acetate--CoA ligase
Amino acid sequence: MSRPPIIRKQIRPNQQTPNWSDYDGLRATFSWSSARRELTGLPHGGLNIAYEAVDRHATGANRDKVAFRFLGDEHSHEITFSQLSLLTNRFANTLRALGVQQGERVFILADRIPELYVAVLGTLKNGNVACPLFSAFGSSPIATRLSIGDACVLVTTEGLYRRKIIPIRAMLPGLHHLLLVRDDAGAQPIAGTEDLAQLLRTASDQFDIVHTVPEDLALLHFTSGTTGTPKGAMHVHDAVVTHWVSGKYALDLHPDDIFWCTADPGWVTGTSYGIIAPLLHGVTSIIDAADFDADRWYSILESQQVSVWYTAPTAIRMLMKAGAAVAHKHSFPDLRFIASVGEPLNPEAVWWGKEVLGLPIHDNWWQTETGGIMIANTPGFDIKPGSMGRPLPGVDACITRRAPGGKIEIVSQPGIDGELALQRGWPGMMRGYLNNEERYRQCFSDDLYLTGDLARRDADGYFWFVGRSDDVIKSAGHLIGPFEVENALIEHRAVAEAGVIGKPDPTIGEVVKAFVSLRAGFTDSEQLRKDLLGHARSRLGAVMAPKEIEVVASLPRTRSGKIMRRLLKARELGLPEGDLSTLETGP
Ligand code: AMP
């Protein structure tokens, strides 16, 4: 069906007036310093994300408002802003009593349970750096991240501890405290761990937030590149200004909203928008710990009266696959805005939202390094389906190209593909990759932060995603570094070398596919491939492990020895092989 290139903005009669409806006007008058003044600041000076998110509401008109509603099979569990303040005080006091010093890192590995949220916010109150990890990771990515991040404290559940931490405990000598959410209250202590519930029970619920300043480190989020180990992007308390502004203008949060961000806090979206931004706006968030299920998700939108919903293309495509009939069993009179992030959102999905849910899906773009949404479609403006939208106030985006001498230049004319770059200067930008200054430096050309994404800008200032400039894989919205997967595969005794690519998939964007060559004495068989898949799954967890393995005689390498993933991918997809001048052609 041919459809118009634009969906005109349409505000329903019962809807809020959008926070932003004069695109150029707000961009012209906006400044980060005035946005910062919309926040409160610590009572005796300084800035702390948890204070802005929790305590300033806990003492004001929002004190009895629900901050989080955790959905359960039978009952849901609500935490108000004032209860959240007391709980996070207890957690902060626990860290203080353990002697955890300002700036030390507290990792949280848990499903979406209340303790995760309390631990992240309590960590910030004590001036420590919070690092939530995705609980579906296998032991190997967990160990890598805990050791790069020099974890001092790990908060986790008994089940995850037994399955994923015990095998790697000896590799983490700097991990001083393991705080466990136990299965049974009052069960026998587990040697080398402490019972979180007991610690919280005995801790005071009064706490003076540590005097953090805007440039103090607050959050550590891992992200993957093409080569090398994952990078720990460091964010400071000043990022709260970006969370506030993007919550207001990109997600259009209003005080009476019921907000549902479906991302897990183990990824940056689940922290910036699953925890911080809605709290800043005094908004109630819905938290669902269960896995995706179309009917369940529609029931949540309906029964929880969700008004703003932030989700991802993979989930939308899965809903599309489930069929419109499942959606039509429900009605969503309260839903007024749907946004999506993480992968390209095809125009078909934007229209599907409009036709089946009554609202188009608004794509937006950002990445771990940017700390918050940078480019967005918002309710105050027309949408161009397939486009990521336009830059937020305070964000200057451009398309760049490498000039013949190697210098990065801004492309001023529209319609040209090039690397997407952002002018330095917004508060949410990472302040570095932990212990990797060189890699951080490579992200910049003068005042431009180079995103690693290829994009195009049209004459109306809308940005269109073209692809990644590297070999990183996006599978179900999760960024996966091929190198980490290859490393796990070559630990298997049958594997001589491994090359990993993302293979396009209509639902989850890309699936991880591995090519391996075998050591002498091993031959290809279905059983061997099964073993390899099982090995990768147990090391990496289901999200990162390859779904397909192909045994090949050898892998294409450059003359300098790097695996040519680009060539593996072209061959897999039957595409032109491109420039092969660097291909090692054998002895
Ligand atoms: P992460 O750092 O894990 O959040 O992943 C960031 C990357 O996801 C970006 O650099 C893009 O490659 C991709 N991404 C995020 N949002 C979008 C979007 N709206 N359209 C296309 N790709 C996106």
Summary: The chain has a mean pLDDT of 95.
